[in-house]
Write a structure and sequence with these properties.
2 domains; single chain; 6 strands; six-stranded mixed sheet; Ribosomal Protein L4, Chain: A; alpha/beta; 207 residues; 34% helix
């Protein structure tokens, strides 16, 4: 069974935490991770891009000039795609980008992402941050003390002090345990879990 050190704000080991093997020691399949990341990114797309085709552009009901005798190329409407102000050929239309990925596969992919972070030694468990007031400078000091690069911080429940202290720090994101997802875990270089959030994550993924 894998285990990790639990640190305090001063980066001193205060405890040792046993992790569930079926969540933090899962064999990683890159194809599964790829599918779930695609699913997440596709789900975020609004799919509302829209341009007007030839039949939708206002005007153009009258033939610009007669068919023959003018010396110019024939034209049936001023709304032709080759005219300025005309319709667009094969332009984007509203569509749904969402993909279908089974819930079990999505849950398995999250286990794989967590396992990979632990395997790469990019997972840090903190007892608690213990900030007494909203202050970005104090939170930056904690992050610098751990020498974390582009961290994803996961907390067990809503904590206004942590969330507001971290919101202006570049390349840092704070998530509650219920919002943990594959894309954010893989997109950030290091993963920081509070001790309480580990229990919440294991409970959610073991159902």
């Amino acid at each position: 069974m894998p285990s990790v050190d639990v640190y305090d704000n001063n980066r001193e080991v205060v405890d040792r935490l046993e992790l569930r093997e079926d969540i933090f020691a899962v064999a990683v399949n890159p194809h599964v991770l790829h599918e779930v990341v695609l699913y997440q990114l596709a789900k975020r797309r609004s799919g509302t891009a829209k341009v007007k085709g030839r039949s939708e552009v206002k005007g153009g009901g009258r033939k610009p000039w007669r068919q023959k005798g003018t010396g110019r190329a024939r034209s049936g409407t001023s709304r032709s795609p080759i005219w300025r102000g005309g319709g667009t050929i094969h332009g984007p239309q509203p569509r749904d980008y969402t993909m279908s990925v089974p819930k079990k596969v999505r849950k398995l992919a999250l286990k794989m992402a967590l396992s990979q972070k632990l395997l790469d030694r990019e997972l840090t468990v903190v007892d608690r941050f213990g900030l007494e007031q909203i202050r970005t400078r104090d939170f930056i000091q904690i992050i610098d003390r751990f020498k974390l690069e582009k961290p994803l911080v996961v907390i067990a429940e809503r904590d206004e002090i942590i969330e507001k202290s971290a919101r202006n720090i570049p390349n840092l994101k704070v998530l509650r345990s219920e919002g943990l997802n594959v894309y954010d875990v893989l997109n950030h270089h290091t993963l920081v879990l509070t001790k309480d959030s580990v229990g919440r994550i294991e409970e959610a993924l073991s159902r």
